[in-house]
Design brief:
heterodimer, A: alpha+beta, six-stranded mixed beta barrel, 13 helices, elongated, B: 252 residues, alpha/beta, six-stranded mixed β-sheet, four-stranded antiparallel β-sheet, 7 helices, disordered N terminus, disordered C terminus
Chain lengths: 397, 252
């Protein structure tokens, strides 16, 4: 301890290696953790065991039009899929954009025509009021459910439930407001939206080139184990309903959203690991710096070691003395590094508007890692000091 | 010249029999050669003796001192300190032996520069396993006895040579060892301070019957001892009473 204080500049510089290493580890881990958390949040809001079924992927004369290029999926397809044994529910969607008016305020947003099941499948929760009902769908009622962002923009602090807004100049009654969900995996704001019955949308707002066709549907399987089974069943059913003969390509696409989410999660995990590994390298370099300085210190203090041995210090005492010095440097460096890392993460979260997550285990991990580096790199110089012969150490000038 | 070859009394503090020490050197042709430093040393020192070892530089007296202090090990032969065969002891046991049985006083004082006088004196107690508070208390008492109480919180570089050497002697005494090894303790001091330091040694020897082994090449310093051992080319050439027995009035 005293030796550390006597050589402030040197100790400080050595510690700096540790500080930067630990701060980098904390910072990188928090960024990685932030990305992971963000993806997990999006996935949680998405709903579980989901497929998205898109029309299209047809080809004409060898020319592929891509997903959604042809309006081959219908509301009745959705109804039929919902009856499959592996399927919990389906939510068919037609969508467009529309101008909304309330009093003097107006707001342009995307409009989603769907069925009540969509809210369940998409894992929406209602904040205020209620969602529209099956009978609203059957009667093509002019009722609407607002996303939280849309509600805020049109109504500010007024409670929208029960109010009448105009969508492309037709009056709609607000029956409910949804709880905020945040961004989707693709980064789209899911809360800037207005939901109306699919029938109302088709007949009065978005219109439809082919009556009954939909833009896509969300399909929820009954359990994660039934996902594979569900995909086969959906495909078989749609091929049958669309009268696609063997050897012909599907005129629809079934995508497993949960699998996509898993990939995203894995990617974030790998990002975390890579960032952490890169930061660890700087910690390693800091450790080598400590070893270097401790070796110099042992050489410089050879005579001191000799004196200590002469007055009765055994090897263990000398070893512990030097090891403690190395650990002290790491410990203090680690502490300052953790503080700087947290501070840096906070600044990043403020400046670049990025989600960073700092967990206690992350802090403890980098702290432990720093101490381990201290012990590892401090051990060799300390052992070198302890294995000096007393007579040689005393004679050293 | 009379050379003491009688068999050692069993109670002797130090018994050395047929001790050899040589260093391995590599000559210009790359051949390893043995360079003998001490040859066939036989020596017994009883509890309470005051012995001066004299010799020219290169005579081997410092090597003998290092072996006596358990800082170095003999190549051949036996060394018993308080009936313990030093050659058989582990490094840790040697450290313990140095800590409990031997107090060192060096020419260059060899105080720990970063520590206060008090902590220097307390250090051997800490290595003996005493706690810090007790060590400091005992160290302060020791400094008081040596008249250095008011310098307790001074660092070595704030003290004069004589004061530093007295701190070093206090440190050597703190574990109440039976043996003090002093390697040219007055080599860096002026004659007046040397006299004070030697008087202190004499007093410790007389009043507390601490065995003192002193290495010096100055006759007037050696004159404080009651027994003189002369070493030449690695062998003892004289071992006997001092030519001038009167330790109180050393003659230059």
């Amino acid at each position: 301890m005293r030796a550390l204080r006597m050589n402030r500049l040197r100790t400080g510089l050595t510690m700096l290696g540790m500080i930067i290493g630990v701060a980098a580890v904390v910072l990188m881990l928090s960024i990685g953790q932030g990305a992971q958390t963000k993806i997990n949040q999006s996935i949680e809001t998405m709903g579980s065991n989901l497929f998205i079924v898109l029309p299209g992927a047809t080809s004409s004369g060898g020319l592929s039009f891509g997903s959604g290029s042809v309006k081959t999926l219908t509301v009745s397809d959705a109804g039929a899929i919902a009856e499959l044994p592996s399927i919990n529910a389906t939510g068919p969607v037609i969508s467009g954009t529309a101008q909304l008016n309330f009093g003097a305020k107006n707001w342009s947003t995307s409009i989603t025509g769907t069925t009540p099941d969509y809210f369940m499948v998409g894992n929406w929760t209602i904040e205020d009021g209620t969602i529209f009902s099956e009978s609203d769908v059957r009667s093509a009622a002019r009722v609407a459910v607002l996303g939280s962002v849309t509600a805020e923009n049109l109504f500010d602090t007024v409670n929208p439930v029960g109010k009448t807004i105009r969508i492309t100049n037709r009056p709609f009654q607000i029956v409910g407001v949804l709880a905020a969900k945040g961004q989707s995996l693709s980064g789209r704001d899911q809360d800037d939206n207005v939901f109306i019955p699919i029938t109302t949308s088709e007949r009065q707002i978005t219109g439809n080139q082919f009556p009954g066709s939909i833009r896509y549907m969300l399909v929820q399987a009954k359990s994660p184990e039934m996902m594979d089974e569900a995909e086969i069943e959906i495909t078989q059913l749609l091929r049958q309903r669309h009268r696609i003969s063997d050897g012909m390509e599907n005129d629809f696409t079934v995508r497993n959203l949960t699998a996509i989410a898993d990939v995203a999660t894995d990617t974030a995990k790998i990002l975390s690991i890579v960032l952490g590994a890169i930061a660890s390298i700087s910690l390693l370099v800091g450790g080598i710096g400590i070893m270097n300085i401790m070796l110099v210190s042992v050489t410089e203090r050879t005579r001191e070691i000799g004196i200590r041995m002469a007055i009765g210090a055994n090897r263990r005492a000398i070893l512990i003395q030097f090891l403690l010095e190395a650990i002290m440097i790491c410990f203090m460096g680690g502490m300052i590094g953790v503080i700087l890392g947290i501070g840096g993460a906070w600044i990043i979260s403020q400046v670049v508007d990025m989600l960073v997550v700092i967990t206690l285990s992350m802090v403890l991990l980098s702290f432990l890692f720093a101490s381990a580096v201290g012990i590892f790199f401090g051990f060799y110089p300390a052992r070198k000091a302890a294995s000096l012969k007393p007579v040689d150490a005393l004679r050293y000038e | 010249m009379p050379v003491n070859q009688t068999s050692p009394p069993a109670s002797a503090l130090i018994r050395i029999a047929q001790l050899h020490k040589s260093y391995r050197l590599v000559d210009a042709n790359g051949k390893t050669i043995e360079n003998p430093v001490l040859q066939n040393i036989n020596l017994n020192i009883a509890q309470g003796e005051f012995v001066a070892i004299m010799g020219h530089s290169g005579s081997g007296k410092s090597t003998l001192m290092n072996i006596l202090g358990c800082l170095d090990t003999p190549t051949n032969g036996g060394y018993w300190l308080e009936d313990q065969n030093v050659a058989m002891l582990s490094n840790d046991a040697l450290a313990k032996l140095r800590n409990r049985y031997i107090g060192f006083v060096f020419q260059g004082f060899n105080l720990l520069k970063r520590m206060t006088a008090l902590d220097n004196v307390a250090a051997p107690l800490l290595y003996a396993g005493e706690n810090r508070a007790n060590s400091r208390k005992k160290a302060l008492e020791q400094l008081r006895r040596t008249g250095l109480e008011k310098f307790a919180m001074h660092h070595p570089n704030q003290l004069s040579g004589g004061q530093q050497q007295r701190v070093a002697i206090s440190r050597a005494l703190i574990n109440q060892p039976p043996l003090i090894l002093a390697d040219e303790p007055t080599g860096n001091l002026d004659s007046q301070t040397s006299k004070e330091i030697m008087t202190l040694f004499e007093q410790l020897n007389r009043e507390r019957s601490i065995t003192i082994v002193l290495v010096t090449h100055e006759n007037d310093i050696a004159a404080y001892a009651r027994r003189l051992i002369q070493i030449k080319d690695g062998s003892i050439v004289y071992d006997g009473g001092h030519a001038l027995e009167s330790t109180h009035n050393p003659v230059v």
